[in-house]
């Protein structure tokens, strides 16, 4: 079971094309969206593709959880805000709460940070990347390999997202889970 945490970035709009590739590779997929991701995704379309409701908010305490438990999590895209909040332990959204629990449970997390080139140089972001990596979170963040958007780049920024690298890393994770 793979949870995809979608944050508020243009690449989230490419999930309908990416999820079937993951399903064909053997993953069952659920989507968890940050509130900011909702403007980039079609929840009904993603629910139809995955067979699971797209969650974006905490459930009521007496409601059952409608999603199966995750074996691994991908954060695609991972925004500047989400990376920094996760590294500081904030759980003010369902997505962050799930990610913080996953760190505590030592679940595999593969995140693809997509800040613009200016935000990538911010000292808090750089510290967050170091902290998350030290906790075992796999971050596909290497601006020399995976170019970042410029500020206010708009729609073309989505084409920079390294989907192939994420798919490769998730296959490594899937094989590791199968072999344990």
Write a structural description.
It is a single chain. With 180 residues, the chain is of the alpha/beta class. Helix content is 37%, strand content 13%. The protein has six helices and five strands. A five-stranded parallel β-sheet has the order 2-1-3-4-5, sandwiched between helices. Strand 1 (2-6), helix 1 and strand 2 form a beta-alpha-beta unit. Helix 1 (15-24) runs parallel beside helix 2 and helix 3 (80-87) packs across helix 5. The protein is globular, with a radius of gyration of 15 Å. The two termini are 15 Å apart.
What is the rounded Rg?
15 Å
Distance between the termini: 15 Å
User: What is the chain-wise order of helices and strands?
Assistant: EHEHEHHEHEH
Oligomer: single chain
Low-confidence stretches: none
Shape: globular
Average of per-residue pLDDT values: 96
What proportion of the residues is helical, as a percent range? 25-40%
How much of the sequence lies in strands comes to 5-15%
Which CATH first-tier class would you pick?
A: Alpha Beta
Can you identify the CATH superfamily? Answer: Flavin prenyltransferase-like
The profile of the biggest β sheet is:
5 strands, parallel
Number of strands: 5
Counting H and I runs of at least 4 residues, what is the number of helices? Answer: 6
Explain briefly what this protein structure is.
The chain has 180 residues and is of the alpha/beta class. 37% of the residues lie in helices and 13% in strands.
Keyword list:
180 residues; Rossmann fold; 5 strands; globular
List the helices and strands and how they pair.
Elements: E1 2-6, H1 15-24, E2 29-33, H2 43-50, E3 72-78, H3 80-87, H4 94-105, E4 109-113, H5 123-134, E5 138-139, H6 163-178
Parallel strand pairs: 1-2, 1-3, 3-4, 4-5
Helix pairs in contact: 1-2, 3-5
């Amino acid at each position: 079971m793979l949870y995809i945490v979608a944050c508020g970035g243009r690449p989230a709009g490419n999930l309908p094309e990416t999820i079937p590739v993951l399903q064909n590779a053997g993953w069952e997929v659920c989507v968890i969206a940050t509130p900011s991701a909702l403007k980039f995704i079609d929840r009904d379309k993603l629910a139809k593709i995955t067979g699971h409701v797209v969650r974006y908010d905490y459930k009521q305490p007496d409601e059952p959880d409608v999603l199966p438990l995750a074996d691994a999590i991908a954060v695609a895209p991972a925004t500047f805000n989400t990376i920094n909040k996760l590294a500081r332990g904030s759980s003010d959204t369902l997505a962050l709460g799930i990610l913080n629990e996953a760190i505590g449970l030592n679940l595999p997390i593969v995140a693809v940070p997509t800040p613009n080139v200016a935000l990538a140089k911010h000292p808090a972001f750089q510290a967050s990347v170091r902290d998350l990596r030290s906790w075992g979170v796999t971050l596909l963040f290497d601006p020399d390999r995976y170019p970042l958007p410029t500020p206010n780049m708009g729609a073309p920024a989505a084409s920079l997202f390294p989907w192939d690298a994420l798919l490769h890393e998730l296959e490594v994770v899937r094989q590791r889970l199968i072999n344990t």
